[in-house]
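[Automated response] Your request has been received and processed.

Submitted sequence:
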Amino acid sequence: MNRESGAGRTGRAVAVTGVAVTTGYGQGIDALRDGIYSGVPAFVPVTRFDTSRYRVGVAAQADPGLDLDTELVALTEEACKQAGLSQSERADAPLVVARHADPAVSRLPREDQESRPISDTAQRLSRELGLGGAGRTYINACVAASSALADAAALISSGRNDRVVVAAGHLVDAESFTTFDAGKAMAADGRLRPFSSGRKGLLLGDGAGAVVLEAVDSRTGMRPLARLTGWGMAGDAHHVCRPHPRGLGMARAIGHALDRAGLGPEDLDYVNAHGTGTPSNDAAETAAMHRAFGEHAERIPVSSTKSMHGHALQAAGLVEFAICLLALETGSLPVNSGYLGPDPDCRLDLVLDSPRKREARHVLSLNAAFGGANTALVVSAA
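Generated structure:
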């Protein structure tokens, strides 16, 4: 299409003005940048709980003593400070949260669980940080953070809000570990190998972060890091766990995001794929990209950075959104680590061996979740 980004949608343009993140590489966007572009995965032996009974004993674990709520407060404060929000501007910004459930609460009696809803996190954070109240709390698995970002952008684009703060978090815990281990979804060889022959499954990782989104015309002195120009969500309605093998829902989500951004596949410089390293997911995601991109499907550089920071579940979309910002900032595309060789079901232009230099203007972030949920976000240079 080669149209100017944003020409395909009506409404206010959405800027990214603040970001803060914690991953298995440590606290801060600088730690994530250094780790991702080193090409060295962050997987280490898990020390937060005993893994002796599991098939797998590694994850991209940060400080084992991290408290998720405390970390979300600190990261949200950092993102708001980077954005330069005044006290009144904070008070005008609702907070939406994508959050992993507290495993301690899940072990309580049902009546006690009901008295401690997960939405309390957003309410407490908004009060503590002087934000304009709690919006939705997203718990829809691996698309929670990306859904929150898309809905926040829609609130701004439609004129309902000048700015929205999005926070997301997941720390590796015994409950999630048990679930994925019992389902034999984790890679027994200790490496997450997206889109590769011989891939064995996923590995989990810590992830927490916050992003400030604002209408570009909402205040003077704004210094955008990037723009969120397109977003799309679509469902497969195919299977409770497996994606549609032809990637129908993911392809629709991509199409919606590109249409909103006023872009065609030829305008994309990079795709940060969901890429969990599981046979069915990677093949279905590849099929979706071929369906959505057509003749450009094997020309657009692709990598799944989960191969280095692990799968952060409810926070995955925010961690990978931050990496898209880094790709735009650095002019370097992160590597698809752990690759052993080509798989005929995964015909893509994968970024292999080392980061690839490319001055990117528009990048696409993809996520998918159990139940057939799919999201696509287009992030464009400021």
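Summary generated for your ticket: The longest strand covers residues 14-23. The CA atoms of residues 50 and 78 lie 33 Å apart.
If you did not submit this request, please reply to this message.
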